[in-house]
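Board notes, transcribed. Complex of a protein with adenosine-5'-diphosphate.
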Amino acid sequence: FVGDVQMAQVSFLPASRMLLRIQNYTRIHHLEQMRTDFVGNVSHELRTPLTVLMGYLETFGSAPDLSAKWQRGFNLMREQARRMNNIVNDLLMLSRLENDESEPPAAVDMPRVLMQVFDDAQASNAESAHLIDLHLDTPKNLLGLEVYLHSAILNLVLNAMKYTPAGGEISIIWEEVKDGALLSVMDNGIGIAPEHLTRLTERFYRVDSGRSRATGGTGLGLAIVKHVLNKHDARLMIESTEGEGSAFKVLFPKSRLV
Ligand code: ADP
């Protein structure tokens, strides 16, 4: 009977109001799509001129007869062009993710993805000015899913490295838990104050924009991570204590594992 009553109520809603709601929803959806397309197109169009600029800055900036003043100028321009390039690439990635309606593949060799992430993080560790102790702990045969997963996890590891002072320690652990599988990226770095935790995955949100800019951050990394994880029905949990460190944990549900 309850079903019948509800049905009756729905049919009594004035048709004009229902139509208005549907139109509003369609309009919001349309505007959202326009925004995504616009960001995607602009980022795409900016890539070529940026590549040309970066190429010339590289060539002219390494000329042997430059005065110290010009050298400083070129270094600054190169650094800013690189920053712009990172932002454009991240925006492009976000808009691709937003437009990508394909289903993630059924399974992926998660230990293989993590090994690759680990190797990339080690290479960046070796290049960076401050060395960090990196650990990876993964069983051989626990499978997960892969769509942009590599770059999302690498993002978490590189963040841990960025926000952990020299001599710090980072652990990456992939383990089976009751409800599925859990990936933890843990550091003993600068940590995050509680009032920021819920906002970290917003686009361009940064706790300390000066510091983030200095470390080459765009503020888009965790927004990308969240999108990628949504595709896998995975949940991101962030635990952190200021001055002690952070743990970025990702729970992959059983249904998404093999
Ligand atoms: P960014 O490119 O600035 O690093 P992200 O979206 O990846 O942007 O991260 C958003 C903000 O979250 C960062 O600016 C930083 O303040 C904070 N953050 C992310 N990871 C960590 C971490 N492991 N330790 C401390 N702060 C972090």
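The first helix runs from residue 2 to 12. Residues 159-160, 163, 187, 189-192, 200, 205-208, 212, 217-222, 246 surround adenosine-5'-diphosphate (CB under 6 Å).
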